[in-house]
What does this fold into?
Amino acid sequence: MSSRVVLLGSKGGPAIRPGGPWPTSSLLQIGGRSIVVDCGLGVTRGVTDAGVPLKALDLIVITHLHSDHVLELGPLIHTAWTAGLAHPVRVFGPTGTRAYWQGFLLAMAFDIDIRIVDEGRPDLRALVEVVEFSEGMVFAENGLTLSALRVDHPPVTDCFALRFDHAEGAVVFSADTAYFPPLADFAKGADILVHEAMLAEGIDRLVARTGNGARLKEHLLASHSFAEQAGAVATAAGVGRLVLHHLIPADDPEISEADWIAATRKSWAGALTIAADGLVVKITDDSSA
Ligand SMILES: [Zn+2]
Ligand SMILES: [Zn+2]
It folds into this structure.
């Protein structure tokens, strides 16, 4: 298996629209492992369509507890369990992840109990270990390390960029963040930087559509990055490829990939990918730009 990132759900924010992209989730395949990063709505379908058997799931990392990153965490694990998952799964997430998981188990207690009795399944409650992390080294095993950096995503304080390092490559996810220059040091020399992005010309139309105009715009500007700013971080970090992800807006017919590229080119001259659901980005392949 070649190492790669699959962008499962590429839009920022929880709304879904007819025929549009799914909220945020990604799959990182490196060192023979398949790691799910964030679990927005659609992640279960995305993992399956990426060719990963659900019962092979073993590692999930959540950047922060906004619903567009965590809403389908429980359903993903539960569906894997009904598909035959029988080994331990670890979930790394910020403070509150354990409470989410306990609440999900409580909500599904009837179904879990009945499948244990009726289908002879192992107890889901015993299969999953939730590890709450903060800034710094999160884990290191079998040549794979994960470290976390607190980013700037008010009013959420526990929101973490993630850096995966392995002999096959280094991949950094920005998580949700306003322009945050320290990310450049954190992402220094990575093969891939997956960075969230907004496009200024689409924000006003998006805000007009959603009916919560002024407050939403205030949140977007305070808590997210423009494509130009993602490009600036990539340039300062000297990464091998920038991937724009968590796109806002993601489904505006007046905005095309060319608009995202034009905005990013103001600050980034290197390899560039604009996310779309299901798009595969090879980690060490620089033949396609
Ligand atoms: Zn988000
Ligand atoms: Zn967020």
